[in-house]
Amino acid sequence: MTVTNSGSAETRSRTIQKSVKKSCKNVCSVKSVKSLVPITTWLPKYNITLLIQDIIAGITVGLTAIPQGIAYAIVAGLPPEYGLYSGLMGGFVYLFFGSCKDITIGPTAILAAMTAKYVSGYSYDYAVFVAFLSGWVVLAMGVMNLGFLVEFISIPVISGFTTAAALQIASAQLISLFGMKGASGNYFSESMINFFKSITTFNIRDSILGVVTILILMALKRIGEGCSRTDGVVKQLRWLLSLARNAVVVIIGIIIAYILKVTTGEEPLRIIGEIGSGLPTIQPPPFSTVVGNETQNFTDMLQTIGAGSIILPLVSILELIAIAKAFAGGVEVNATQEMIALGLCNIIGSFALSMPVTGSFTRTALNNASGVQTPAGGIFTGILILLALSLLTSTFYYIPRASLAGLIITAMFYMIDYKIFARLWRTSKKELIYLIATICVCLLLGLEYGIIAGVVLDALVLLFTSARPSLDVNTISSAKGNVIVIRLPECLPYCAADHLRRKILKVSFKAKSDTLIVMDGVILRKMDTTVASNLMSVIKDVEKTNIKILFLNFHVSIKEMCNVINPKYRNKFVTSGSSIEDIVEVTVKVTV
Amino acid sequence: MTVTNSGSAETRSRTIQKSVKKSCKNVCSVKSVKSLVPITTWLPKYNITLLIQDIIAGITVGLTAIPQGIAYAIVAGLPPEYGLYSGLMGGFVYLFFGSCKDITIGPTAILAAMTAKYVSGYSYDYAVFVAFLSGWVVLAMGVMNLGFLVEFISIPVISGFTTAAALQIASAQLISLFGMKGASGNYFSESMINFFKSITTFNIRDSILGVVTILILMALKRIGEGCSRTDGVVKQLRWLLSLARNAVVVIIGIIIAYILKVTTGEEPLRIIGEIGSGLPTIQPPPFSTVVGNETQNFTDMLQTIGAGSIILPLVSILELIAIAKAFAGGVEVNATQEMIALGLCNIIGSFALSMPVTGSFTRTALNNASGVQTPAGGIFTGILILLALSLLTSTFYYIPRASLAGLIITAMFYMIDYKIFARLWRTSKKELIYLIATICVCLLLGLEYGIIAGVVLDALVLLFTSARPSLDVNTISSAKGNVIVIRLPECLPYCAADHLRRKILKVSFKAKSDTLIVMDGVILRKMDTTVASNLMSVIKDVEKTNIKILFLNFHVSIKEMCNVINPKYRNKFVTSGSSIEDIVEVTVKVTV
């Protein structure tokens, strides 16, 4: 039996050096330049079978991408065509730079909700400008390998943020769902207040359509359960109907609105109306905009966006990486590459009037379920959107706002993770508090502040936990005298110095005369000067009474650090086996 | 041999509950009310012997407190009498509420330097207002038990801050040292630029006096080395002369200035001039002030102070606690009590025109060396200052500015810890970077920003370190197949979830077919939902290939958390001995 070990304290610093060298090398190698454009890897092997599968998946996704695009444009407060434009460029750019076959890039509910604030407060230009800005930030973070920052957002915080976003988005749609008049709001509270204020303008026809839309969507989702692409014809049909349910309800809505128009000659339902048709004009993103009577320049726009210019990109990275991990199938996700692809999607998209885009969970899952083989599927989604933009805008004119509202609210209903509340209640009430705190701040102050609050709360608790490491105390009463062993943890950071000092003093006060206190450092790997100074200064304090202190099995580098701080106590460091008998033996030997 | 253990994972939560209960109880008990006013403990035992020792110590400290008070008022840009007023109330208030006999409360160089910005930019009123405000903040932090916040300032950051403060204070005195004309500056860089700009106004008489003052101070410090209060007469005299060196050089300066005035009829040296004599008027602290032609109200003043209203109190707490620990002699410092005392010193002091005060290291050391027995020593220091204010202001008129500058610069010279640079270079280069970064930010942007930068840097590095725990990997090749053991650390916080996932995937990719990966959780105590979710999701990814994964010796609460997240994998948790043989045995048994 042979045992090999990696990752010990000595090899660690060498590993770090190596990994730094490696990442420097990686940036420049031919292989990495090639891996920057993953299309170069899969395109040579592309064939007709793959093509057919990609076409089928691409079109299936397109059937969802079109109604979702329009819906998310509405969520952001933009004209519907912006949502379609946003679904276009993402797919084409990701085709070249993306490394996960399933991912579809486009507008998402959360990014739309985060953009809404700027659109309603300022102008449409802001949506495109935010996409451009966010693209550069994502790209820069990708190049600088800063993707690890999203690791500092814990699941309770992500879940709280998502729940709050869903509530905020859904609440903003209530006005449309019930055919009311008036604006909704940028925050959950504002939307709810406006909803109750406008409740008298309630319209029965829109309401019925809206509620029925929700019911149909829920029913269609259910009938698809347990069915897949590879089942028999009936099951396959159920599966397809379930997948295309967003398109189905929108088409039903259009038909109803059209019939009502033709039969009554009026437009009794509130519909989305005129949609700019045709391709978006290719133009530089807006670096200035007119708000009211004032022209805002680049700097003004940047100031308006403020902290959002970091948080929105971080959220888009978070969405993308989470989806990539979910669909990577055990393969490690190249986060850097994904971030570069996402950044380029946003930057290039912003030249074609795109709002901020990222990986969409619904459409990625759909893409995967439809059997997509390469990122080429995105082309066919794009072509379908292009066709819609060219031919169907006069049809889209009749989309009832209540249908879209129903569609959005249903999607939001499924976005919330209800089970996490019970799960955290059972396993970790502390984390339940983070979850609820994140939700509350999101709903009361806005999504950005909520996610910041959650991350800061998590980080502060982690810091405070580091400052209070657990210190096991074993009292050994033997014939040769009492020995108290304080077992030091793996890591003692600066902020634990005082805690350790207090613990030692407390132990020494309670100890009988002639007791020996042993600091067992066998698993201690990391310690800094602050702790070392405290340890060296506490010796004098403890040994004022008739108590001795010894440092057992300290790593040589930590021992050296202590000795540099106070060379006088060099002889207090001893080595022995780590069993209790060994400790008693060596310490009795030393003190005798 | 009996072994008792405290602090295991199970008992921890109970310990926390207990300590919460205890601290609630502590606030209300009679004992704690009594311990809030420590004078009630020592006054009943007070006697004539103690009184005589306290008088001697108090007067010795007074001899330093007077020149230092005047000097630090100058550092803050205030008229000299403010420094004396500040030395008065502190001692009287601390007498009642202070728990460490040695500590003397008064103005310090660092607090003076931090106050200087407001005085030079606005008005004298700001110094008193800052003392008042800072007093309330310190008191509130004391009552709320927030003293532990200073544990998050590591030694390299404290040292960098102190070094930068010393450089800043000393640089601001260069103009006075060389008898130049013109203002100095609020920052190191500004002071140095102003110094070189004004270098043509250099005055030879002041310069000689200033430089000679420094030399005398250094010589007097040296002759006192190795001497103490209890030595023979000669050594005792040397000791006394060394202790009173600040008073000595000021007196020499006064004599020279006076003689020059009498002989030449002019005032060829720059002297401090008129000092407001007598007691300070007792009046409420200024809640509004006039700056230029504008009146600033309470809110304006609060806004001006901004972040300083937290940082200045934190620094004063830091100074006090550090000194208290140094002189506590192994007894645990009651940080809460000290903070309450300090808060009251500042609040009550601000009614008698005091600038911010805290424990002074020099004078506390002097107090200790002079054999003080109780905080009553402070009364006699106070009385000496009162006498000086009543009788000596016409004498203080002649104090040469160059003498004071020499005194301040020498004190700053000794405040810097030169050895820490070499020590950190040898033991911890990472911490040397924090030290230098803190110094640079302090010198370039100001002391407040420097300490914030240092603390944030430390905290961020700690967070990143927590996100990358060391995971030992042991490969065991046995006849029955390969086993790879990944040893989990004591604590796996949310931010380590991705790192762990990547490690497991990496190990599984490299592993041969039929390998068993064992996650050894024997020392794992803390893990949160984020890590648990990642662990449960990685199983599926790993087991797609022909590799199995097992969770060995997980604590029951952690196992339960994982099972709630995914009950399907309940059978993957096994228990065995923790030696390699045991692991191989149990895992082979499970997989067969």
From TrEMBL, chains A, B:
<feature type="transmembrane region" description="Helical">
    <location>
        <begin position="55"/>
        <end position="79"/>
    </location>
</feature>
<keyword id="KW-0812">Transmembrane</keyword>
<feature type="transmembrane region" description="Helical">
    <location>
        <begin position="433"/>
        <end position="464"/>
    </location>
</feature>
<feature type="transmembrane region" description="Helical">
    <location>
        <begin position="199"/>
        <end position="219"/>
    </location>
</feature>
<feature type="transmembrane region" description="Helical">
    <location>
        <begin position="126"/>
        <end position="149"/>
    </location>
</feature>
<dbReference type="GO" id="GO:0016020">
    <property type="term" value="C:membrane"/>
</dbReference>
<dbReference type="GO" id="GO:0055085">
    <property type="term" value="P:transmembrane transport"/>
</dbReference>
<feature type="transmembrane region" description="Helical">
    <location>
        <begin position="305"/>
        <end position="327"/>
    </location>
</feature>
<feature type="transmembrane region" description="Helical">
    <location>
        <begin position="91"/>
        <end position="114"/>
    </location>
</feature>
<dbReference type="InterPro" id="IPR001902">
    <property type="entry name" value="SLC26A/SulP_fam"/>
</dbReference>
<keyword id="KW-1133">Transmembrane helix</keyword>
<feature type="transmembrane region" description="Helical">
    <location>
        <begin position="378"/>
        <end position="398"/>
    </location>
</feature>
<feature type="transmembrane region" description="Helical">
    <location>
        <begin position="339"/>
        <end position="357"/>
    </location>
</feature>
<feature type="transmembrane region" description="Helical">
    <location>
        <begin position="239"/>
        <end position="260"/>
    </location>
</feature>
<feature type="transmembrane region" description="Helical">
    <location>
        <begin position="155"/>
        <end position="178"/>
    </location>
</feature>
<dbReference type="Pfam" id="PF00916">
    <property type="entry name" value="Sulfate_transp"/>
</dbReference>
<keyword id="KW-0472">Membrane</keyword>
<dbReference type="InterPro" id="IPR011547">
    <property type="entry name" value="SLC26A/SulP_dom"/>
</dbReference>
<protein>
    <recommendedName>
        <fullName>STAS domain-containing protein</fullName>
    </recommendedName>
</protein>
<feature type="domain" description="STAS">
    <location>
        <begin position="473"/>
        <end position="561"/>
    </location>
</feature>
<feature type="transmembrane region" description="Helical">
    <location>
        <begin position="404"/>
        <end position="421"/>
    </location>
</feature>
<dbReference type="InterPro" id="IPR002645">
    <property type="entry name" value="STAS_dom"/>
</dbReference>
